[in-house]
Each structure stands twice: as C-alpha cells, then as structure tokens.
Amino acid sequence: MLDVQNIRKDFPILQRKVNGKPLIYFDNAATSQTPQQVIDVIVDYYTNYNANIHRGVHSLSQEATDAYEQARIKIQKHFNAKHPHEIIYTAGTTHSINLVANGFSSLLQKGDEIIVSALEHHSNIVPWQMLCERTGAILKVIPMNENGELILSDFDALLNDHTKLVFVNHISNALGTINPIEYIIDEAHKVGAAVLVDGAQSCPHIKPDVQALDVDFYVCSAHKLCGPTGVGMLYGKEDWLNKLPPYQGGGEMIAEVSFEKTTYAALPHKFEAGTPNICGGIAFGAAIDYMNSIGFDNIAQYEHELLEYGTEQLQKIEGLKIYGTAKEKTSVISFNVGTIHPYDIGTILDKMGIAVRTGHHCAQPIMDFYKIPGTVRASFMFYNTKEEIDTFITALKKAVMMLS
Ligand code: 7TS
Predict the structure, then answer these.
(1) Does ligand 1 come within 6 angstroms of the Cβ of 200?
(2) Per-residue model confidence (pLDDT) at position 174
(3) Residue 93 in contact with ligand 1 by CB distance below 6 A
(4) Is there an atom of ligand 1 within 6 Å of 176 CB?
(5) Last residue of a domain, one of 292, 312, 331
(6) Residue 223 maps to which CATH number?
(7) Average of per-residue pLDDT across 305-329
(8) Which candidate, 9, 178, 308, 344, has a CA 20 to 30 Å from the CA of 244?
(9) Residue 190 pLDDT more than 80?
C-alpha cells in the first residue's frame, strides 16, 4: 500500500494553485513532476561540483565524473543491462531513436523491410521514414483493432526474411495500451530482425529487464519518471552498439584524431559527443532511486486502481467515449464528449486548475484510425488521488454543460 498523502509532500509543485484553484496534474504522460529528492540533487550539483567531466584532473571534474558514471551504473542495474557501457546517455527518447535510425543507414539495403506499429508516437515513425528514404528500405505497419490493440496475426504475416528491424512502443502514449513486447521480440528474432522498444511511457510504470526480454534496443526519457527534461538513455546490446557507426562527431567520442584519420572511442563514449547534460544524467540516477524507493509493484497496483476508478466515473458521463480499451493498459484515459472539441474542454479544465493534454498527442495515425482530430487525455501517476479524480469529474461535467 502506498502512503499517497506522504508521497505528495515530496512534490512541491503539487502545493501550488493554478488560476486560483489547487493544481490537479493529470498530464503525466507528457511529463511527470519532480520530487524534492531529485530537485536537491540538481541544486547540489550546481552549488557544489559543477564541472566538465572525463577531462579534468581537478577535484570538481573528478567528483562530477564519478557522480555521472555512478548514475550510469544505477540506470544499468535498474534496467538489468549486462554492462554499464550498454547504457548511452542521450537527450531523451527522440534522440535515442534517431541515433539508432541513423546508425542503421549503413546496415540496410534497398528492399529490406522495417516494421513499426500503428500505435507509435511520431518520434517512432518519422526517423524510420527518413531511414527508408535514405536506404530504399520499406516501412510496414502492424495494424490495430478498435480497442487499440495490435493485431498480432497481421504482425506474424508481415514478418519474412527481408525484415531487418521491428520498432514498437511498450505502452502507447495516446491510448495507454500495453503492447505484448515479449511476443513481438521473440517472433522478430525468429526471422533475424532486431527490435527496438520505445519505453518512454513504460519506464514510469514498469521496471523492464532488458536481458530477460532479450530486446536489442530499449529507449526512454528521464522526464517521464520523475527526472529532469533533456536527458534519457539508449540501451543497446553491446554487439549492436559496436556495429552501429557513431551518430555525431566531436569531442569525447574519439580515440585519436589527425587530419588523415580519426579513430573512435570505445562504448559508451563513441555515442556521447560533446559536453553532455551532466547534471541531468546524475538527476536521472536520483529519479530512478526515488521511483525504486516507492516500488514499481506498488506503483502499478495503485495506478491500476486510479485507472479503474477514473474509467468507471468517466463512463457515467453521457455522450463520453473512451478511446483505447485494451485489456492491458496503464493509467491513461483518452476521451471525447459528443462533438465538443477536446481543446475547448482542456481550456475550461485549466481555468479550474486541472491540467490535461488535448490534441493528437503526436500520434496522428491513431487519430486518423478513429477519424477524430484529437482527444482529451488524462494520465495518472502514483501521486494522484481518487479525490482529484472526483474534482476532475465535477469540473468536466461543468465544462460539458457550458459547451453543449
Ligand atoms: N515515444 C513515446 C511513446 C512518447 O510518449 C513520447 C513522448 C516520446 C516517444 C518522445 O519522448 P521525448 O522525451 O523524446 O519527447 N510523449 C509525449 C506525450 O504523450 N505528450 O507529450 C510528450
């Protein structure tokens, strides 16, 4: 059982008012809030040991390097990667995906096939389209059903000897569907394809074991799991990371440079050109510590209760339709009420201190599937409460009355 009232005290932002009303933050799928424990780590870094890493003999530089590399080990242990050098710091999920897509440019040939799912965020569609343009590879899509679940028999039918890569998110940001990644990874491996799992939405709810999953690449952003923005990670199996060429050239990623020839640094530095987000990396580690102190089983159980309660209450509102009713889903509820535009609902809710996301959620193909311009999306995190859901429902009813 979570002591939610105590947990809420860790998040200073939850004390503030918005438009004169206590903030109710239901936009967690876009970004999560930051606990004091992580804020303290950020303040401590800039107050006491801000310095560039891996290049100074002085104490500050060594302290910063140690903290940054310790955080990498925390991330490695959390995701159960075999080696710390299989964890590449990036600016976030989008950066991680682009790094892999860019690397595959030199490994693919015309006619090779890449499979993505119908449930992807734009960041897991566009880089692969760009890769196809560069290489002549062909993009195929696993379709979804009305509930927002992938149709696995169609996935099976898409796989063949030409399939080189499969990309799928672990959890859909627009609908909350939890995808059967174990099955997808196993089947893709049977035809020799590599699999990248986009964990942007799963990392705050599930603790994945990348070795048990046998996944080739797993990516996520720190800001989704109570860490800062502008930092994330790419996990890649050592063999794959060695095969991929560097993404960006610059300092830190080289072994030796001359005008005739440059050799690259070993993993992970080969992919970490330039001065990184040092403080962000350290705070990413602190965020993982924080999430683990709460416990992922506790988080999943409590958020599931919020999902069930929220769904039940929303379904009582006349004309409300929920998009995404997969059997396996996380605490994301996407909906519309009648023909009211989602943006109008979001604007009125904001006046009442309630933050939800409205629009296509960077997943336009999903909106096209349902033939809608967008949805209102409420996404819950372990620091939200049933009382907040009650206030949200009352506010939503008011908004619907005003707009009908
Ligand atoms: N993949 C998924 C599944 C996501 O939900 C997001 C962000 C990304 C990739 C991109 O992550 P970034 O950290 O690189 O931006 N999703 C959302 C969202 O649902 N609302 O705002 C951002």
Answers:
(1) yes
(2) 96
(3) yes
(4) no
(5) 292
(6) 3.40.640.10
(7) 97
(8) 178
(9) yes
Q: Which of 262, 292, 322 is the last residue of a domain?
A: 292
Q: Which domain holds residue 369?
A: 4-30+295-403
pLDDT tens profile 79-137: 999 999 999 999 999 999 999 999 999 999 999 999 999 999 999 899 999 999 999 99
Is position 132 annotated as part of the catalytic site? no
**The token pair that represents 107 in the structure block:** 């490994």
Looking at the structure, do residues 299 and 268 belong to the same domain, yes or no?
Answer: no
CB neighbourhood size of 15 (10 A): 10
Helix and strand totals (H; E) in the chain: 14, 17
pLDDT the model gives residue 254: 85
**Average pLDDT in the chain:** 96
> pLDDT tens for residues 8-23?
999 999 999 999 999 9
Say whether both 213 and 278 belong to one domain. yes
Q: Does one domain contain both 307 and 279?
A: no
- Span from the CA of 299 to the centroid of ligand 1 (angstroms): 20
Same domain, 225 and 311: no
Same domain, 219 and 164: yes
What's residue 213's pLDDT? 98
CA of 131 to the centre of ligand 1 (A): 20
**Ligand 1: which of 100, 121, 356 to mutate, judged by most atoms within 8 Å of the beta carbon?**
121
Q: How far is the CA of 200 from the centre of ligand 1 (A)?
A: 6
221 and 174 within one domain:
yes
The answer to whether the CB of 169 is under 6 A from ligand 1 is: yes
- The pLDDT tens digits for 367-392 are 999 999 999 999 999 999 999 999 99
**Ligand 1 site, residue 123, Cβ cutoff 6 A:** yes
Task: Read off the pTM.
Answer: 0.97
Residue 251: pLDDT band by 50, 70, 90 thresholds?
confident
- Does residue 241 share a domain with residue 389? no
Cα separation of 320 and 315, whole Å?
A: 7
Q: How many Å apart are CA 404 and CA 398, to the nearest integer?
A: 10
Q: What is the mean pLDDT of residues 274-278?
A: 96
CATH classification at residue 350: 3.90.1150.10
Number of other residues whose CB lies within 10 A of the CB of residue 260:
5
Q: Are residues 260 and 344 in the same domain?
A: no
C-alpha span between 181 and 197 (Å, rounded) = 8
pLDDT band, residue 250 (cuts 50/70/90): confident
Beta bridge partners of 140: 115
Q: Are 338 and 319 in contact (CB under 8 A)?
A: yes
- What is the count of structural domains for the chain? 2
User: Which residues, including other chains, have CB under 8 Å from residue 310's CB and lie 6 or more apart?
Assistant: 331, 333, 378, 380, 389
* Helix, strand, coil percentages, rounded to 5, for the chain: 45, 20, 35
